[in-house]
Amino acid sequence: MPRNKKGKRGGNSSSKGKNGVRGESGVSDDDLASDVLSHYSSASESASVVEEGTGEVVDEQTAQEETEDKLKQCIDNLMDKSAKTRLAALESLRLAFSSRVLYEFLLERRFTISDCLERSLRKGGGEEQAAAATVCALLCVQLGGGVEGEEGFKILRPILSSILIDSCATLSARQSCARALGMCCYVSASEDAEDLLKSLGHLESVFVGAYPLGDGSLPTVKAGTPALHSAALQSWALLCTLCPASRINTVLNHHLPRLHACLESSEVNFRIAVGETIALLYELGRDIDQEFEYEDCDALCDSLKSLATDGNKHRAKNDRRKQRSIFREVLHYIENEDFTEEKIQFGIETIYIDGWMRRRIYDAFKEVLESGVRHHLQFNPLLRDIFGLGPPLILDASVKASRISRTERHLFNSAAFKARTKLRNKVRDKRADVM
């Protein structure tokens, strides 16, 4: 996770500047965000950590209390008159929500935070709207799929949907709202299908802008729009995993032919999103009927083969490599139902990504949580329930004691790196014995 400049530790972030505006002086906005992240990094270590050079023991409970105080200040700053202060507060909350599980802390403050986020979404500029939408998604992940999460989603869904379909809103804000709407609906949608259907409809209304025109040609879109189409399509695909069989049949009949046409798009990331969505829809179709087959499957496979072997030099080398890899997987799945299993390790546990639906779900959480996804897989009951991991593991003292210190780990990694470098240099040497 990227860090901002290291701020002053222990500074008074609530001090007022000469104009009397909180957050404009004392400790800067960047310092406050950095402090929140650094406190969470220290709290994520074992119960007590010895600071280098001092020998002083830092108690985890003290670090937790200090961090919560800073988070309370960030929540207060969401109501500040200064847009810069509100943006800094949103960034601090994003870092904290993605790096730790804060259910108890947020439970009694959820309505205050939801109201502040709604205000930022309604009245803020494009950058603030995008940041607020991301924090909305993280808040739902923190609160989980219970009553509290549903309450937050009921408050935030209308404004997220409104910005998403507003052509006058900035593309970054609409893209962030697309991801937030998909994640919040996936986590918080109740047994009542109304919220799910409304969210699906709003997301669909955005990415159909990339569908072929009446003459079969693809529309010309302005720069940045394909990223919005990709975000809306991926969130829509995530929500399709919740749909009943009757809805899936309708989706397959209507969308597969049009998505097939979108494989001709000039934007590589949108093509990849389309290819992954086609594979996911195929998997959903086969779950309903093992004999499911797209009526124009031969033409689809020809398109996939072309993309899986694309060597056009006008495309960036990394783009070509990524595209070929993804479309080989899609092609193998459609032709032979083969899927390359992926193993995700965190702590002493492992999950296996063994299908396109499971991959879309994992990728959606990874997009929101970023580098904090492994921590949430270890400790967040919501993610553990979704991936079938059971309650969080409690390591006994002997396991905790067996962990090596940070310094020892650094020395070990340095030695291993030097050994790898020597070996690689030997192999690369033209004089090396090829025998």
UniProtKB/TrEMBL annotation:
Q: Which protein family is it in?
A: Belongs to the IFRD family.
Q: Which residues form a coiled coil?
A: none
| Record-linked Gene3D superfamilies | Leucine-rich Repeat Variant
Q: Which residues form the Interferon-related developmental regulator N-terminal domain?
A: 37-335
Compositionally biased tracts (Acidic residues): 53-68
Name the segments for region: Disordered. Answer: 1-68
Give the Interferon-related developmental regulator C-terminal domain ranges.
380-432
Please name the Pfam families in this protein's record.
IFRD, IFRD_C
Q: Which protein are we looking at?
A: Interferon-related developmental regulator 2-like isoform X2
Q: Identify the domain of life.
A: Eukaryota
The species this protein was found in: Labeo rohita (Indian major carp)
UniProt feature, compositional bias: Low complexity: 34-52
